[in-house]
Amino acid sequence: MFNQCGKRIKMYFFHPTFNLNPMIRERLFPLTLISICCFLIPHCFAAISLDAQTVRHGFPYQPSSMAHDPVQKILAIGTQSGALRLFGRPGVECYCQHESGAAVISLQFLINEGALVSALADDSVHLWNLRQRRPAILHSLKFNRERITFVHLPFQSKWLYIGTEKGNIHIVNVESFTLSGYVIMWNKAIELSSKAHPGPVVHISDNPMDEGKLIIGYEAGIVVLWDLKSKKADYRYTYDEAIHSVAWHHEGKQFICSHSDGTLTIWNIKGQGKPFQTITPHGKQPKDGKKPEPCKPILKVEYKTTRLGDPFMILSGGLSYDTVGRRPCLTVMHGKSTAVLEMDYPIVDFLTLCETPYSNDFQEPYAVVVLLEKDLVVIDLAQNGYPIFENPYPLTIHESPVTCCEYFADCPVDLIPALYSVGSRQKRQGYSKKEWPISGGNWGLGTQSYPEIIITGHADGTVKFWDASAIMLQVLYKLKTAKVFEKSRNNKEDKQNTEIVEEDPFAIQIMAWCPESRMLCVAGVSANLIIYRFSKQEITTEVVQLLEVRLQYEVNDMESPPEGGGGGDRDLPTPGAASPSPQTTGPPTHPSTSSNSSDGVRDNVPCLKVRSTPLKQSSGYQVELVVQLVWVSGEPPQQITSLALNSSYGLIVFGNSNGLAVVDYLQKTVLLNLGTVELYGSNDPYQRQARSPRKARQPAGGLCDINEGSASEDRCKSPTSGKLSFSMLELCVFSTCVRMLYLSVLSSTVLLSVCPPRGANPLDHRDNSFSRSRSSSVTSIDKEAREAITSFHFCETFARKGDSAITPCLYVGTSLGTVLAVALNLPPAGEQRLLQPVIVLPSGTLARLKGSILRMAFLDNTGTFLPPAFETWYEPNAAGADSEERDKARKRRPVSVSPSTSQELQESQYAVVCSEKQAKVIALPSQNCIFKHSITETSFVLRADVVQMNIGNCVACFCANGHIMTLSLPGLRPLLDVNYLPLTDMRIARTFCFTNLGQAMYLTSPTEIQRITYSQETCENLQEMLGELFTPVETPEAPNRGFFKGLFGGGATSLDREELFGETQAGKASRGLAQHIPGPQGLEGMKGAASGVVADLARARIALDERGQKLGELDERTAAMLASADSFGKHAHDMMLKCKDKKWYQF
């Protein structure tokens, strides 16, 4: 079947007996699925349109035009990609898209009528209906012979003026979208003696006091006052500089032009010889009376009058050429004062907001909306200093480029208020005290019952938390991670030797967040990790806690493991295999651990330097610990590819293409530092061949820094004095796997995964074509030496095959498709947790899949999702009675899972593993694969998540070929397969996120977030959740002409455009000039779009509309018949009176 946009959707349906145990149900009924994509009622189902995107947030990417409805108080912005964004009051937004994708060059509201006209660069004009929650095109007109350059629609008129590149003006009826036969030809508008073409039409507007007079501006510098009735030019005004814009004085006696040399010319309509006044706002006035020096073009000017004061002249551009490097400016000239307002980005367009929509009255301007290339600014004209309004829209997503993002649904209810409370203290001061002027529309009635949060990481090191509940987006809190580090110096030599990225060294690469405990960990591109705790109290940290880790391997020529990963005892590496160095440094100072060999090679140097001065931390997220990977023997650390956090265990684990490290952030200790190969022990299944080491400033391989003696003890010692810590060698003694911790690790090789999940380098220029081979079979990777860590998962499960009890575990996924288990032996909660060591023990391989491992999760024996253990949030800086509550909260959350004693169900848990190619469900503790599904053969999965729905769980996948698929759990049966979004940009792959309850999001452009849903419930409620752009508002009364103006004339003169432009007088337009294209909407379009619960209401409304329409037609026909009968009776009566006195022979 197909969705509303013509995209093919594979739908699956389920048997009504869905209340059975999931395991039994899937064995009895192969098609019995808990479906999230369709909900069956007997004999019918409702399909969702996954292309029915819920809402788009952020600043419109590459804006090109703007319009404002002064009565409805809504704003429209068009972009170069053919998108339309409409804004009303905060929370009322709408996104539309022209199918052609051509740039929007002009927008015109039908003021207070709920309609909008858009003109595109492909010479098409469209009429949008804004009276429905999702605006749609009613009519389109495609010009074939001429290029559109300007569009003008007078207030309360249904005739649209369209100027073209040839200099002609055509007129369109906006109700029927048909061309009038009335055409203003360029050769009739200019002087007959003129031989040169005047250029394209750059301006059209009617005289405020006489609708029959039309002013036309041509690019070459000619302005024509055209009389519509007499069809000839009354006056012509010529200037020797090109014209960019024209504006009227409200009395209609003067107009002003902006020119390419930075001048403004003011003209009287009856004085066509030369301008009444010439102004160069930013030009230097010579003393000898000569012409001022030319300036940059004034792209637009507006002339607005006030009843009690001087008029406003507002213009963009016009700066002097000698102002090199000066930012774009908006100039406000009011009386004798001139204010130059600098902008952060180039100005695309601006509009002046006025109290009245009538152009023949005092406008009384109160604000200016300035559309910039990457921002929207509204300036208050009524206050001194022209302050700006605080923008309530979520338009600052791109304030720094987004490098990663995460999406969380069904968060704790107290989380959003807590973030908002600390974030409200970060707001800037100095904004206008008035309310936001764009206040039209109404909020939707429907709401989501669960809170949603989006977290974005940025290139400058900031992390932003957004409230995404329902379909709104509001910034809650902003965290600046770069404050932890010293400011970069201008020492180019030192920078070149330590930094591994040339630009944006603080960029966020991966984030791990626990909503329940509010713990946050961010990984940067400079191979650093920062762990944060949430606190409502301000503190000052004297010394930032720091751990430095050597997660780097040097190349040694060692024998490859026997084929098949055979065993045998391995010799321990000699102490000289890797230079011993401390792995941790801590308070009270951060001594430099750098060391140079005889050839000047850097060693033990982090990429960024942590600040050594006290750090004042305001309420919100506060630094708990910084972990940095260091340079090893002149080679930089490799960037982190995977990250996980568990607040209940107090552990952070991270990995890259070398190996992994487990950090205890409570004891500030490195617990485990292993290469990926060492996790296999003697059972390495791959035959790895040694490769030559990489050169300097490239990630390299080698031995992990696991050494005997005091160096190892110093490396793992806690920075807090008096606390017990174990070296790696001592940890190995506790285990029975000494051999597996000291295997040869060979040199680097190319990773198979193009985009490792949650770990793609946001600044890495990779191949965007995705055309390389994605083969992940064992035969193709037997000889690969480098195996990256791609995913982690903390859980309480069975560490080994056949275990009878569950224990805390860490599961590790690699780029070669292997899932490995690591057992965690945790001390008792409370004080003992801070004193006794955490023992980490690798426990072997769980499964192997094709492709890199993307996601892991666990289910109990009933198919219920088992979330990782967590601790509830407590105030870390509490004192007195609050500290007792803190100690109670620090106990680990019990997990209500125990092995089943049932004889029928011997398996107690199910592990769900998803890779780039396939998904498996493995029974535990037997470790038998019970379900297996090949997701794709021709492509590969970019993002996979195990998500919880209201009626079950599923695996959601997004593939590189653009397909979004969902699989049931635990049976892995297909539920949904939609060819939604062909992958054309690495940005989409890097930012695509699934979350619970059928929601997903991705960065559709550098400045915009697109949210989608695959939940039937959300789709059904979406129509009610969307806001309404159009609200019934009475049009303000027209200005009073006054007694004397009415008596002696001088007031506004109206024009019967219907008579002038209608077919009766103007004739028909040329057939080949433009093609009319009816829109897909109307009653028939609404029938096709209606679905679900909203569909029933829509159908009822359609039926009422149809019945009302038919009744209206019947009423009209009845009235026509009545009029005809009255006319016939009148004529019959007249005939009777005429013939009453005549004799029969007189007829």
What is the radius of gyration?
A: 36 Å
How are the strands of the largest sheet arranged?
A: 1-60-59-58-57
Instruction: Classify the beta-strand content into a percent band.
Output: 25-35%
Number of helices: 17
How would you sum up the major sheet? 5 strands, antiparallel
Keywords: Cell membrane, Coiled coil, Cytoplasm, Exocytosis, Membrane, Phosphoprotein, Protein transport, Repeat, Transport, WD repeat
Family: Belongs to the WD repeat L(2)GL family.
Protein name: Syntaxin-binding protein 5-like
Organism: Oncorhynchus kisutch (Coho salmon)
Q: What's the gist of this structure?
A:
A hairpin with a 4-residue loop joins β22 (254-259) and β23.
Secondary structure elements and their pairing?
Layout: E1 9-11, H1 22-28, E2 38-41, E3 44-47, E4 55-58, E5 63-69, E6 74-79, E7 83-87, E8 93-97, E9 104-110, E10 115-120, E11 124-129, E12 136-143, E13 148-152, E14 159-164, E15 169-173, E16 178-184, H2 186-189, E17 201-207, E18 210-218, E19 222-227, E20 232-238, E21 243-248, E22 254-259, E23 264-268, E24 277-279, E25 298-304, E26 312-317, E27 329-334, E28 337-342, E29 347-354, E30 365-372, E31 376-380, E32 402-409, H3 415-423, E33 452-458, E34 462-467, E35 474-480, H4 492-498, E36 508-514, E37 519-524, E38 528-535, E39 539-541, E40 546-549, E41 595-596, E42 602-603, E43 615-617, E44 620-629, E45 642-646, E46 651-655, E47 659-664, E48 669-675, H5 676-680, H6 710-716, H7 728-734, H8 778-781, E49 789-797, E50 807-814, E51 818-825, H9 831-835, E52 839-848, E53 853-860, H10 881-889, E54 909-915, E55 918-924, E56 928-934, E57 941-949, E58 952-959, E59 963-968, E60 974-979, H11 986-991, E61 993-995, E62 999-1005, E63 1008-1013, H12 1016-1025, H13 1043-1048, H14 1057-1061, H15 1063-1066, E64 1074-1078, H16 1083-1089, ...
Helix pairs in contact: 12-17, 16-17
